[in-house]
Amino acid sequence: MPPDYQVSPSSARPGDMVTVSAPETKCNPRYGPNAQVRVVLTDASGEDVLNTMAPMTDAGGFVVTIEVPLLADPGVMAVKAEPYGVDWCDDTGTNNRANQGEAELERASCAEPMKPLTITR
User: Fold this and answer.
1) Cβ-Cβ contacts under 8 Å for 69 (sequence gap 6 or more)
2) How would you list the strands of the sheet with 62-67, edge to edge?
């Protein structure tokens, strides 16, 4: 699974800075020395209003500070942060990251993790 991340603060105004972060995992996910995390803000209408990349450690830790876009509408935005270039929902059951042969389980679907960010004026 992608790292469990936090959004702080949980409420902000356009132009405010918000931090999206995750601690390193204890399970050795092996993201690699050039790992990146993609952070996306999506407004209530489903439009991505911010899409940015940042460094992530081999163990999945990251800290990304972003500015809430000035044109962001009041309401709740979805914040998504996930490792870039990793297929978390491989329906074939093949582990695309580690390439260690056939997986014992076959995954059928995935839910996309998101955290709320309330935009105020």
Assistant:
1) 14, 41, 49, 50
2) 6-8, 17-22, 62-67
SS3 for 118? strand
Q: What is the pLDDT along the chain (121 residues), one digit of tens a residue?
A: 567 899 999 999 999 999 999 999 888 788 888 999 999 999 988 999 999 999 999 999 999 999 999 999 999 999 999 999 875 555 555 545 555 545 555 544 556 789 999 999 8
Domains of the chain and any CATH numbers:
6-119 (2.60.40.1930)
Question: How much is the pTM?
Answer: 0.79
